[in-house]
Amino acid sequence: MEFVLNYAWIEAVMLSGVRMVAFIVIAPPFSYNAIPLRIKGMLAVAFALAMSPRVADGYVSQNTAGFMGALVLEIVVGALLGFLVYLVFAAVQSAGGLIDMFSGFQMAQGFDPQSMVNGAQFTRLFQMTALALMFASGAYQLIIGGLARSFTAIPLGGGIDFADPAQALIAAVTQMFLASVQIAGPLLVVLFLADAGLGLLTRVAPALNAFALGFPLKILITLTLAATVFVALPQIVSSLTGEALDALMGVQ
Question: Most CB atoms closer than 10 Å: which of 92, 110, 116, 201?
Answer without folding.
Answer: 92
